[in-house]
Amino acid sequence: MFERFAKRWLSARKRVRGKGGRAKSRRAKGRKATAAPGFLAALAKRPALLLACGAGIGLVVGALVATHRGPLPAARTPASSIAAVTPAPEPPKPAVTPPQPAPAVPPSTTAPAAPPPTGHQPWQQFAKAVPETGGRPMIAIVIDDMGVDKPDSARVIDLPPGITIAFMTYAKDLARQAAAARAAGHELWLHVPMEPLDGELDAGPHALKTSLTPAENRQRLDWALAQLDGYVGINNHMGSRFTSSEADMKPVLAEVKARGLAFLDSRTTAATVAGRMASEMGVPHIDRDVFIDNDETVEAVLVQLRRTEEIAEKRGRALAIGHPHATTIAALLKWLPTLKEKGFVLVPASALLHQETATAG
User: Fold this and answer.
1) Higher pLDDT pick, 249 / 8
2) pTM value?
3) Which of 3.30.390.50, 3.20.20.370, 2.170.120.40, 1.10.287.470 is the CATH number of 122-360?
């Protein structure tokens, strides 16, 4: 850049000298007028020297400008950028509370239940007390199939104390229903499904069947017995085919005996061997005498109840089985208040079990 500038300046100088008006005056100024052009010509012939001079001039000019204006202000960072870069403060750490010891369990104010007398079996522990009979004939009424229809089952539970209730193994909410029945003064049994003669009939979930192995039936029986506690024993739901088979009944009765329970044969068939085998095996047992509601009318139920009375007068005891039908409940509400006047005593099923055991022993 400086080289081009020097050449142009010298060219302009030569043109000026060619003009006559100013030549004499410039000669008079002497050598001072030619000193600067000579220096610039020397620079033009040495480009490196010319570049160094230019750089020096630039440094001097820059220093003067900086001195005049002062230091340049620092660049400002936008507030948004600061906010983005600045990390958020950490939330305060919660105070660490040392673990507290669990509160001590307050001592029970209720005396522990006395252990049952030595030699008492579960069926004896859960049997309801037998009312004073005064030598009068005893009648036990067992209502099967309980717990499946909750409203009808609740109406049976509301009947006077002394009714024996057999809860179905597969009923829902069984523990609560059983607790209500127990609180109302009723004795509890467990109603276990067993195979009927009619293959089209469904006895229910986990029914005992002659087509199963003893191990499979044992597994189903274990399930059934675990559905409830606090009951005297079991009785068969349906089961006309199963209770007719000695080979299938033997392991069932053996397990009932091993658990200290009793067996009630519902006698759904005349060919049943359950009662005889229970007696031979030393299992506490009783048999049904009358079904009171095969005909589901109030009048028919009352007829069967009178038949139950006749058996009790003749033998001193009778056991009738019914179901939680509305007509059965209505008939019982009419019949139960007449028992005392007729000279009968309503007893739990276990009361007849005591007598049956004593007779067999």
Assistant:
1) 249
2) 0.67
3) 3.20.20.370
